[in-house]
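Supplementary Text 2. Reproducibility record for the structural model of the 233-residue chain.

All settings were left at their defaults, and a single model was retained for analysis rather than an ensemble. We include the record here because the model underlies the residue-level annotations in Supplementary Table 4.
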Amino acid sequence: MSSFEKDQNFWTNFWNNNPIIKKPEPQLKVGRTINGVPINENLWNETISFLSGQLELNTDDKVLDIAAGCGLISVPFSKKVNSLCAVDISEELTKSYGDYNNITKIISDIRDCEFKEGEFTKVIFYFALQFLTMEESVLMLEKIYKWLSPGGIAYIGDIPDIYKMFDYFNTLERESQFFNSLKNRTPIIGTWYSRKFLQELGGFVGFENVEIINQPSNFFNAHYRFDVKLFKK
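Retained model, structure tokens:
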């Protein structure tokens, strides 16, 4: 197997085989922790409210949740919209959803998904862009643009900011873990992005407007992550 193929398969294997996906607490299942401590329920509810507002959700919306995990966003969003399609590579994670009449679950690598042009009014891609290479992120944004209907909004959130990398790897021990992960091709976070790259990429694929969103300062990862909101004309 080439080094490139190893990189491509790392996250696929991780989200199908890592023991965290069997943990009982939903935030632990998807690795949303700091020093092993998951986000608390009140702050997550605040996060959902913030994301709903940014996406301007309404009862007519047809939403696509990319890399939906165990439904932490899909389930509350489904109560606000007409229909929601949740895509994730891990069958184990999607077992957490329960039964919701307006949620369609698809077990698939997001890189392989195809939908009809203009099928969705809103797209959410949260805490997952990091699992794509920069090359793959170009292809994914092209797909998202195609899948959105005119006037649609895409929201890509919790993106690791490359200029704040060492606000996260902020001790000698964590720096050592980071550099060793590069040597061993076992990434700790995944791909780190610059705000400028995503602004320019959004324009390149056709979005009329691209807004960089700073997360509220009390949010779990606000010290080293940011969001992007994209509008299709």
